[in-house]
Amino acid sequence: MMIPYARQSISAEDIEAVVDVLKSDWLTQGPTVERFEAAVSSFCGAQYGVAVCSGTAALHAAMFAIGVGAGDEVIVPAMTFVATANGVLYQGGRPVFADVNSDDLLLDVTQIDALITPNTKAIIAVDYAGQPCDYVALSALAKKHGLVLVADASHSLGASAGEGGRVGALADLTVFSFHPVKPMTTGEGGMVVTDNADYVARLKRFRNHGIDRDSRDRQQSGQFQYAMVDLGFNYRISDIHCALGLSQLPRLGAWIVRRNEIARRYDDGFAELPGITPLTKQAGLVHGYHLYVVRVAQASAGVNRDQLFQLLRQRGIGVNVHYYPVHLQPYYRSALGTAAGLCPRAESASEEILSLPLYPDMSDAEVDEVIASVKDCVADKGVVHGKVCC
Ligand SMILES: Cc1ncc(COP(=O)(O)O)c(C=O)c1O
Question: How buried is 24 (Cβ within 10 angstroms: 0-12 exposed, 13-18 middle, 19+ buried)?
Answer without folding.
Answer: middle
